Description:
- The protein has helices spanning 7-23, 28-49, 81-84, 98-105, 179-195, 200-210, 303-314, and strands at 2-4, 52-61, 64-72, 108-114, 118-125, 139-146, 156-163, 166-174, 217-225, 230-236, 240-245, 248-251, 257-258, 262-263, 269-272, 278-282, 321-328.
- The protein has a 5-stranded antiparallel β-sheet, with helices on both faces. Strands 6-17-16-11-12 form a 5-stranded antiparallel β-sheet, covered by helices on one side. The protein has a 5-stranded antiparallel β-sheet with strand order 7-8-9-10-15.
- By secondary structure, the chain is α+β, with helices and mostly antiparallel strands.
- The chain starts with a strand and ends with a strand.
- It folds into 2 domains: 2-125, Histidine kinase-like ATPase, C-terminal domain (Heat Shock Protein 90, 2-Layer Sandwich); 139-328, 4-Layer Sandwich (Phosphatase 2c, domain 1), CATH 3.60.40.
- A hairpin with a 2-residue loop joins strand 7 (156-163) and strand 8 (166-174).
- The radius of gyration is 20 Å and the shape is globular.
- 27% of the residues lie in helices and 33% in strands.
Amino acid sequence: MLGIRDPSQVATARREAMALAGALGFDETATGKVAIVVTEVATNLLKHAGGGEVVLRPVHASATSGIDVLGLDRGRGIPNFARALEDGFSTAGSAGTGLGAVRRLAQLFEVHSAERSGTALLARIWPERPPAPAGRRVIESAGVTRPAPGEDVCGDAWSVQHRAGVTTLLVVDGLGHGVAAADAASAAMAAFNAHSPAPPAELLDSIHGALRATRGAAAAVAEVDPARDLVRYAGVGNISGVVLNAAGARHLVSHNGIVGHTVRKIDEFTYPWTPDALLVLHSDGLASHWRLDSYPGLTVRHPGLVAGVLYRDFTRGRDDVCVVVARERPA
């Protein structure tokens, strides 16, 4: 999470992006593409919105790793998005090649912009050709995490597993914040990855056992099975889950307790899933009163863009935060 408030932070964002690309095995050409995309996104935040945030996150598919670049601002929005993509068009006196360059260099490019809320941009760069999706009904997921103010590590985390057309997601909120909370979250993710595949209640029970030596956490596991048109869910503590579709919102049930310490019972609940559904999971670092009906067209966008808008507009700002969104890849 990189704040962009002055030109020096554009350079910082570029260096961070190049370091991440190097760590993921990008070659020199692909790393250069990442550097250009991040520079253009961060520069646009300064020129057109007076600043904002750049989020860099690795994405993984099969044996390939890519990078998501998320640009978030609370500016005046983009009045004419089609024109903004044209080379030479600028409202800030620049060369006007920023958004067009980002679109050409990224294999995934999506933007949501509104006059009253600002602009969110998602660009995904793979080091080579993007991996092909496996299966007809593929679940895509993406999330945003950020540590509490003043902390270097985040006690909120998420993980995802795919198997035989089924996608299983974990969201965990280590008690409190700081290093001890992050240690609890890491232990939960390790247990989740070690015991998958398993039903959500069974996975949550395994996580409960793994967290006994930690300060504990809130945690929830959701399994999306599009072939059976259902979601299976088990949660303990203050993790919120919602399934949104044309029929409305279904709030997922979590029991009270602290995973690793006081868990009265772990139940698994089943909810209907439809091809147009959106699953949102988040910690209590995100306000619970959010709604998406005031963001026209957002619910059909990539999950990474939806997660970015929710983070931007509904973060409480005093705790760790994690928000994860999943939906089916459009046919």
